[in-house]
Amino acid sequence: MEQHRKILQIVGYQNSGKTTLMEGLIRQATSEGLCVGTIKHHGHGGIPAIDNLKDSIRHEQAGASVTAVEGEGTLRMSIHQSNWQLADILGIYAAFNMDFILIEGYKNEHYPKVVLLRTAEDQALLQKVTNIICVLYWPTYPLDKPLKYPSFSIHDTTQYMEFLMREMRGKR
């Protein structure tokens, strides 16, 4: 699957800016004529309620062609089975003609990741995840020393957006 389309994960703890970053990437890619699909992991536990799909709706409003949210075995494309692995969902997405798939969450998967850091406690995430391509940090994150990954302030939108779009385009 990865040979045909680029997959990028956006990971961070709650309220770190994942959905806002996803919206920006979707808008940028679609403005360049690219087709984007998104998958969100409902990490707060339970089945994602139909009236609580605000993040996937934001993905759609930003221009994503296909969106889904998964939690506790329910994939809100309204397909039910005992549980869902990210690979199963990506298999469904293979039927759609997309240039990029952006994944919000699924910290333990192996796809290239952007990590968002808001507080000092978030630093632990850098040891928990693999395949980090860059870090976006908030002013509330104490950047005492340079990180070993390309790092951008969350407010340097132009810089990190150019970096991420280059990453997305360059490995297709």
TrEMBL record:
Query: Which range is the signal sequence, renumbered to this chain?
Result: none
Tree of life domain: Bacteria
Name the residues that span the membrane: none
Q: Which residues form the Molybdopterin-guanine dinucleotide biosynthesis protein B (MobB) domain?
A: 7-136
| NCBIfam families with a match to the protein in the record | mobB (TIGR00176)
What this protein is called in its record is Molybdopterin-guanine dinucleotide biosynthesis protein B
Whose protein is this, by species?
A: Ureibacillus aquaedulcis
The gene is mobB
